[in-house]
Specification:
single chain, PAS domain S-box-containing protein/diguanylate cyclase (GGDEF)-like protein, binds ligand C2E, about 280 residues, binds calcium ion
């Protein structure tokens, strides 16, 4: 028993050391990436279901460091949130999305809106809102071409702080979307406090459609919540025509997912964009 105990202990410390080292390397990689601008934005299209018209693009950050194993945002965003560098990444993401949006407009291309993701820590009045204003001004992107996605749980976590922050940005025309909707247990009354223009149904509720009856009911409830609040509803993670047809039947306005496209670099996203209508 003693030997097994010691063995377990050694295994445990080795695992801990490995985890600490992994974190250290990722930490170092992220620091370098921020300094040397090794992040890249990919874009995923959102379509209106009724006529399959492009209504927007979601910017999703990627880390492509040559010679190093790829790591996705689900793994590195939490590290940046922990070490306080998420605001540095957020600043870059905001500037880059605004710059790219303006460049497309200047080429006469219509992307609808560009959405960027904000971490809950960024939802602080006096920091991110100033940064967003500055990025809009520097790029010349009209404010109503920019949308901010904040998760439902992040919104609840920030409470009143989020309310002031969001009203401030909404007043200059920036649109607000609630991400991962359905996972944060917010009520209709709660949502009414925020100037929200879009609800994004979490892909966990979409995955098993049309077969899963309870998921279908939940999705239907979320769609009627959107209706009651006058907010448009997008389904995330749509991968099949059957899911899309069913969402359409349930009254869902728009959709995003691998069925249409995976997130792609700007150079490829360009091919999806129709020409701007003549003013
Ligand atoms: P999210 O905002 O919920 O983004 C949607 C994620 O689902 C993306 O993963 C996207 O590639 C993936 N996805 C889209 N359609 C489908 C589909 O049909 N099937 C499946 N299985 N997946 C689909 P990604 O790009 O790995 O991003 C993961 C998360 O990382 C994002 O979740 C978001 O929370 C965070 N993130 C990404 N970029 C940023 C950023 O610039 N800033 C911040 N703060 N967070 C970001
Ligand atoms: Ca999102
Ligand atoms: Ca989401
Ligand atoms: Ca399910």
């Amino acid at each position: 028993a003693k030997r097994a105990g010691r063995g377990t202990y050694r295994y445990y410390t080795e695992a801990l050391t490995a985890a600490a080292q992994n974190k250290l390397t990722l930490d170092t990689r992220l620091r370098r990436a921020l300094e040397q601008r090794e992040f890249e934005l990919y874009y995923q299209p959102l379509y209106r279901i009724a006529d399959r018209r492009l209504i927007g693009l979601e910017a999703l950050v990627r880390l492509n460091q040559p010679g190093l194993p790829p790591v996705g945002p689900a793994d590195f965003i939490p590290v940046l949130e922990e070490n306080g560098q998420i605001t540095a990444l957020g600043a870059w993401v905001t500037q880059e999305a605004c710059r790219q949006g303006r460049a497309w407009l200047d080429e006469g291309l219509d992307f609808g809106r560009i959405a960027i993701n904000l971490s809950p820590q960024e939802v602080r009045r006096g920091q991110t809102d100033e940064r967003v204003r500055a990025a809009l001004q520097a790029s010349g992107l009209p404010a109503d071409r920019l949308e901010l996605e904040i998760t439902e749980s992040g919104l609840m976590e920030q409470g009143e702080r989020a309310e002031a922050f969001l009203h401030n940005l909404r007043s200059i025309g920036v649109q607000l979307a609630i991400d991962d909707f359905g996972t944060g247990y917010s009520s209709l009354a709660y949502l009414k406090r925020f100037p929200v223009s879009k609800l994004k149904i979490d892909r966990g509720f979409v995955r098993d459609l049309p077969g899963d009856v309870s998921d279908a009911q939940l999705v239907q409830t979320m769609i009627s919540m959107g209706r009651n609040l006058g907010i448009s509803v997008v389904a995330e993670g749509v991968e099949t025509e059957a899911q899309l047809d069913y969402l359409h039947e349930l009254g869902c306005e728009s959709a995003q997912g691998y069925l249409f496209s995976k997130p792609r670099p700007a150079s490829e996203a360009r091919a999806w964009l129709p020409r701007l209508a003549e003013a």
